[in-house]
């Protein structure tokens, strides 16, 4: 069964958008009923900085798939140890640390691999 090239074009983009939306959900913790609304909005925007950065990288990958794929691979692999260590230190559970890594960094590794694969299929 041959997988259409169109599918390889869209899957990494969809996975990346979903992963960015997931990461963006963590910004919602900036809303605290005890703070003034303007402070909450400022905190929310500060918490969204990683999402803005990832959106910029997605735009790069959209235009230059190979380099975008490399960048997402580096980000996913590079953030895996700190994300795991932070969650392991908080919970002292290997399983929880691995699940968090699976949810946060693996989608970006997969996105990087799929962008590179999409680039190669088009060449």
Radius of gyration: 17 Å
- How much strand content do the residues show? under 5%
Which consecutive residue ranges, at least 5 long each, have pLDDT under 50?
A: none
Q: What share of the residues lie within helices?
A: over 70%
Counting structural domains, the number is: 1
- What is the β-strand count? 0
Overall spatial form: globular
What structural class do you assign from the helix and strand content? mainly alpha
What is the tally of helical segments? Answer: 6
Largest sheet, in brief, is:
none
Order of helices and strands: HHHHHH
> In angstroms, what separates the terminal alpha carbons?
20 Å
Q: Report the mean per-residue pLDDT as an integer.
A: 92
Write up what this structure looks like.
This protein has one domain (5-122). Helix 1 (5-25) runs antiparallel to helix 3 (49-63), helix 3 (49-63) runs antiparallel to helix 4 (65-91) and helix 4 (65-91) runs antiparallel to helix 5 (94-104). It has helices at residues 5-25, 37-47, 49-63, 65-91, 94-104, 106-122. It has 123 residues and is mainly α. The mean pLDDT is 92.
């Amino acid at each position: 069964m041959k997988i259409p090239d169109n599918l390889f074009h869209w899957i990494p983009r969809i996975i990346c958008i979903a992963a960015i939306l997931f990461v963006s959900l963590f910004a919602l913790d900036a809303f605290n009923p005890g703070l003034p609304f303007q402070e909450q909005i400022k905190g929310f925007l500060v918490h969204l900085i990683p999402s803005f950065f990832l959106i910029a990288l997605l735009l790069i990958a959209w235009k230059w798939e190979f380099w975008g794929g490399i960048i997402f691979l580096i980000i996913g692999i590079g953030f895996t140890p700190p994300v795991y260590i932070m969650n392991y230190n908080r919970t002292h559970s290997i399983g929880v640390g691995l699940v968090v890594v699976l949810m946060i960094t693996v989608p970006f590794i997969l996105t990087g691999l799929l962008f590179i694969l999409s680039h190669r299929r088009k060449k």
